[in-house]
Amino acid sequence: MGGSASLIPRDLLSEYQELTFLSKQEILLAYKRFSELLPKEERENACSVRVPKSQILTLPELRANPFQQRICHVFSTSEIEDGSMSFEDFLDMLSVFSDSATSDIKSYYAFRIFDFDNDGILDRKDLEQLVNCLTGQGEGSRLSSAEMDQLIQNILEESDIDKDGTINLAEFQHVVSRSPDFASSFKIVL
Amino acid sequence: DGSDDIEGGSAVENEENTKETDKGKKQATPRTRRGHARGRDRHGDEDDEDDEGGMRRAGPRRHRSRRRGRAAGNEASDSDMEPVKARKNQANQKSKEDDEEDEDEKGGKSGKGKNEKKGDKKSDKKGKKEKANKKKKDKKKSGSGSDSESEEEPITEEELAKLKEEVEEKKKLIATLRNKPWKMKKKLSVLKEAQLFVEKFEGALGKGKGKKFYAYKVMMTKKWMKFQRDFENFKTACIPWEMKIKEIESHFGSSVASYFIFLRWMYGINMILFGLTFGLVMVPEALMGKPYGSLPRKTVPRAEEATAMNFATLWDFSGFAQYSVLFYGYYNNQRTIGWLKFRMPLSYFLVGVGSIGYSFMIVTRTMAKNANDDGGGDDTSFNFSWKMFTSWDYLIGNPETADNKFASITTSFKEAIVEEQESRKEENIHLTRFLRVLANFLALCTLAGSGYLIFFVVRRSQQFALEGLENYGWWERNEVNTVMSLLGMFCPTLFDVISSLENYHPRIALRWQLGRIFALFLGNLYTFIIALMDEINLKARYFLPFTLEEEKIVKYNMTIWEASLYNGTIPENSTAPPIQVDPADVPRGPCWETMVGQEFVRLTVSDMMTTYITILIGDFLRAVFVRFFNYCWCWDLEYGFPSYSEFDISGNVLGLIFNQGMIWMGSFYAPCLPAINVFRLHTSMYLQCWAVMCCNVPQERVFKASRSNNFYMAMLLFILFLSTLPAVYTIVSIPPSFDCGPFSGKTRMFEVISETLEHDFPSWFGKVFGYASNPGLILPFILLMVLSIYYLNATSKSYKEANLELKKKLQSVRIEN
Hints:
The structure holds 2 protein chains of 2 kinds.
Chain A: H1 10-19, H2 24-36, H3 53-56, H4 60-63, H5 68-75, H6 87-96, H7 103-114, H8 124-134, H9 145-159, H10 169-177, H11 182-185
Chain B: H1 10-34, H2 41-50, H3 55-72, H4 82-88, H5 93-116, H6 120-143, H7 157-176, H8 184-205, H9 211-238, H10 242-252, H11 254-288, H12 311-315, H13 344-374, H14 383-390, H15 399-421, H16 429-467, H17 474-477, H18 479-499, H19 506-542, H20 548-566, H21 592-629, E1 645-646, H22 649-666, H23 673-695, E2 696-697, H24 709-733, H25 751-760, H26 763-772, H27 775-816
Parallel strand pairs in B: 1-2
Helix pairs in contact in B: 1-3, 1-5, 1-8, 2-5, 3-5, 4-5, 4-8, 5-6, 7-8, 10-11, 11-13, 11-22, 11-23, 13-24, 16-18, 16-19, 18-19, 18-21, 19-22, 21-22, 21-23, 22-24
């Protein structure tokens, strides 16, 4: 494998094409961007190396995103749960966020991203944290607790079909699949 | 690297396995044939029973088979039918070992799969594999005794069918793998497994009659899929301006970018229209038609020759530009031209009708696609949830835009909460109502004022025309176009100011704004058309109404004039050779189609100029002013008035739509219009991209206009319909000019069709066509279509109701639980 060190082997490339929603150029571009995150010595093995979370978050596409931490943790397959990503995790992430991904897979991963405590449901705490992420970091822009309660109350009224006080995956997908903006906003393109 | 895989760690094993199955896959088929030299059947039996066990056993087994595989080299002499024989020839030692090796692979993998503990699909597959294993075990046990050399044991039909089913399921799995929310490693291993299975047993299915054909079919399917994938890649690489739009998306969000995506889509449509008009109308006439100067209609009249090459004349699209393939009047009415016998009038007619048809088709198709994406929203009661879950735009990569987005999300949350709480308060509702009525009244006044202004200006221009245009300067000649463009520029701003009285929610305010601008442009356009019709009638008032007599008179005049050249009496049946008269001197008949075409072209060009100047002055100069004069000005220019401009999405989109309407209206009379429009859209794209990045700031209220996508499409469709009405009306009801154009000499333009049917098609075709266009057949057809629309509407309503019922049922069931 010495000669084509800077490229992905061809059969692997075609398998990635088969398994993701990305086209060949997108995969090659992803490889290029991914290997740029690595220090020079490790660029040869970009396919098997893990990039630490702090490096991933320097990507301009993720830099301004309030859910950057969650995205890294959801797509990372690292055993030590440090949010580091390998190239295949990176491809997974780009595939889900690509333009041609189905709404089903996008909503599945959106649910996992919003589930801050990883317990499989969106309860009050998750929703509160979600609102705080969306309103930005400044103190002046946060909602007061009365407003927060009212907001979460309204949301649960709308989306919680079985009235158990939490939103599970099915309810989430039901709500989000009816939104016309979801697929076009849940998109990251390199 | 053979020693690597003795390791036990599952992660490493996974990676190694995937790497090796790469090589293994390539050697899979040869390897199945290779193992014959080693005696392993008893060991194989044990393996079969043991393969439910752990990975550790799978590890060494695989290790051994890898070693063997690599050592033995490639013996690919046999065809793909080997696995077929291998499966059935149980007695044959060679086949047993082959099977065992495959069992190893599958067994090992299924063991691994169990360890991963994920996915129901896995257990399904395992179940199927166990079935296959069991089948093979049975076969082995039954066949182990015999030593026969029988070639093929017959596979029963049902086994064949089951096998086929499994192969199809595997193929479907491969096709839908990317939809599964699994990690890449798992997907890779599942894919490899499934591919191996398919490859192995696809050969098995093709036995007996037509096995060669089956293998060929399989290979062609694979090649076809590869071709499709490559073509998709090629297509995405061909999309122009992708990087530019992506940059804009990350700075300004998806709503501003949606304008540019719309622009690019329009560019595509115009390219196709350009291809049609250029390739099928302009080029054949230029190459095969009579050249310039051979016919009166193709030559600049003597009177105008002096100024024909001036830049001013050319800019005005008269002179040489008028007497060229760019306009309707140049084309000759010969039925066929050139050695190819190209039917020019037919082609002109069909291209005109075809452009309209194509535009309708593509706009409707895009609307349908957008409607599908919208998910047929019957439930709009998820306001808060949508704000929560879908309001963040993941394309934003710029911190400044992100801050704006945070602010707007916060505001919209607060607003929504307040709205929800105060929806019952009736504070100042009378004042609000009064203000809204006042605003609407003002808007109506503006519309009426602009309509009257256009009418007045057009009347004035008719007066100028009567008195001869040479007496007036540039302003008088271009008054109509300039006034229309200026109105289009200033009235929307006026509407914006008026709407601040109304105090609506921004999305509703945007709808009102769009509606008013739409009414403005529509009014302008139709006033313009009425004015044009007036002008045509005005010119016609000089000559008698277009009747045959009038034609005869003009023709008679021409003959007399010709005769005067003979210095003799009027020749009734002239046998003398026609004197060569310079076509520039022949008196001409009127040509209203070219005139209409010219008007449209002039309007398009002036519109283009206005847009560019607006961008340069309104955006660029303003930005320069704000930036550099900020130091020496009393108040902060950047935050107060005038500050940097925001990109006006709705105004630009509407401008684009109306310009396209102009093109559709005029392209029948001026085949050069699509070409001009392609040029204009091309330069527009670059200029506006630059202007947006350089002079505009992200909008303060960053809200999504995506639901407006179908709104814009609906407007486009409406404009398309309205623009094609005049063209269709003229084709059907007005006789074409007798002295210019491809339809001269006919009483109606569409007669070219019947002429073609007569001459170029066999006679029975004409008869069939005649029957088909019988009103007795067409009316029932229209009735049928109306009935089917009614039926489909009723069905869709009933589906919606069923949907609601189901939802209620779902809720009540969940509540019970």
